[in-house]
Amino acid sequence: MGKASAADLVRGASALKSLPSVYNRITEVVNHPHSSAEDIATVVTEDPSLTARLLGLVNSAFFGFPEKIDTISRAVTIMGTQQLCDLALSVAVIRLFKGIPQQLVDMESFWRHSIACGVTSRLLAKERRECNSERFFVAGLLHDIGSIILYVQAPELAKKALLRAQRRREPLNSSERKILGYDHAEVGLQLLKMWAFPDALQHAVGYHHAPLRARRFPTEAATIHIADFIVSALEFGSSGETRVPHLEAKAREHLGFKVHGLCGLVEELERQYEGVVRAILLPEDAPT
Amino acid sequence: MARRALMLQIRRELAKEGMVLAADLRGPGGRFLAASGTAITPQHLRALEIWGIAEIAIEDTDSEYLPELQPIPDPAVEAEICGRFVAADLSDPFIEEIIKICLARACQRSAEGQDGKG
Q1: Looking at residue B32, what DSSP letter applies?
Q2: Under 8 Å CB-to-CB from A67, ≥6 apart: which residues?
Q3: Integer CA distances (angstroms), A123 to A63, A135, A221, A235, A276, in order
Q4: What per-residue string of b and e applies to A255-284 under the rule 16 or more CB within 10 Å gives b?
Q5: CA–CA separation, B6 and A47 (whole Å)
Q6: In terms of pTM, does the model score above 0.95?
Q7: Which of B77, B78, B82, B85 is the best mutation test for A, with the most CBs of A within 10 A?
Q8: Whether the Cβ atoms of residue A80 and residue A58 lie closer than 8 Å to each other
Q9: Rounded to whole angstroms, how far apart are CA atoms A161 and A163?
Q10: Which of A136, A194, B26, B59 has a CA that sits 20 to 30 A from residue A223's CA?
Q11: Is B10 strand, coil or helix?
């Protein structure tokens, strides 16, 4: 395969043309002005696997609700419709990539890295009192989604980039740019654009290695950049990168995140992480 | 209580007069400040502050501050961790702090007999 552009690669991934229909139906119900929590619950519970994952997530330390939440309608009431919609989106995207070849990357490790980045992004957003911190979780969860497209659509070039990064001890995104002319962040941006995801999500993913270039959503991009750095450093899974990515000190300054906040953040990440992994990476045939 | 031959890493604030250095004390850029085996004096405590040294290695001779201490990691593990930060500015306090957390986690994994990572 020759050097296709990032947009070409995404267009070529025919299986990814659209998100699972359940997500579209949830969005429709959420956006309808007269929808109730029951209406949303009816759509979600049509999909037992999605229901199990969402209930697992809302009952984990990620939310830390004092009582067990055993129905989706109760989850909607407590969390809010947009938050539940965002979490449903996360779960839907992960399922979309189930069963892809694993020659270049261990997918469980990939999603573990992505989940840790999502949890950390949400913690950073909460620290800044950003509204709808779940959206930051989604952005963190999807930040390396472009890597999967590269591994599936351009495996030879992706492999060259991985080998070059290891041999030259340089960050993977730099190797990708040298070999392909763009990196996995750009591919991720093109995918989210194709799916018509909100601009803030597109930019958070697209600029997570170059947050200072994100003119429209610098806070989102800086948050994912810092979260990716932290979880890569602490080796929470891996998306193929064997080194710790470059850290833009100015992105940390932009967020106002202080050095002394790091220990507490890591402790909270460790407290929430396994519960989210268990909920999201639940086997398909697990009982609901 | 029998004296244990352990080397412990402690934060500067926990350093006390009379503790014994378990490694040479060096400032930024490797500047030599005191030799391993030296008992800490008030001058040393002041030097730690002046040079902004966040942690020191001491011999474990007393148990009263043990809960606050962290064991020194295996040098090979430390080298492996630091080697992963190829694109990092190691003088950035944020990077220093996260490397410390990585080392503490590696020590904890080692103490728990785990090889696996997060």
Answers
A1: E
A2: none
A3: 11, 11, 15, 18, 13
A4: bebeeeebeebbebbbebbebbbebbebee
A5: 56
A6: no
A7: B85
A8: no
A9: 5
A10: A194
A11: strand
Q: Looking at chain B, how many residues does it have?
A: 118
Residue in B88, B117, B118 nearest the CB of A247? B88
Residue A151 corresponds to which tokens in the numbers above?
A: 């591994």
CB contact under 8 A, B88 and A242: no
Partners of residue A242 in chain B, C-beta under 8 Å: 84
**Residues of chain B neighbouring A231 (CB-CB closer than 8 A):** 118
Q: How does pLDDT run across B22-31, given as a tens digit for each residue?
A: 888 887 777 7
Q: Of A197, A198, A176, nearest to A187 (Cα)?
A: A176
Q: Which amino acid is at B19?
A: M
Instruction: Quote the ipTM score.
Output: 0.83
Encoded tokens for A83: 């938050």
Largest CA distance in chain A: 58
From the centroid of its chain, how far is CA B95? 15
What would you report as the CA-atom Rg of chain A, rounded to the nearest whole angstrom?
18
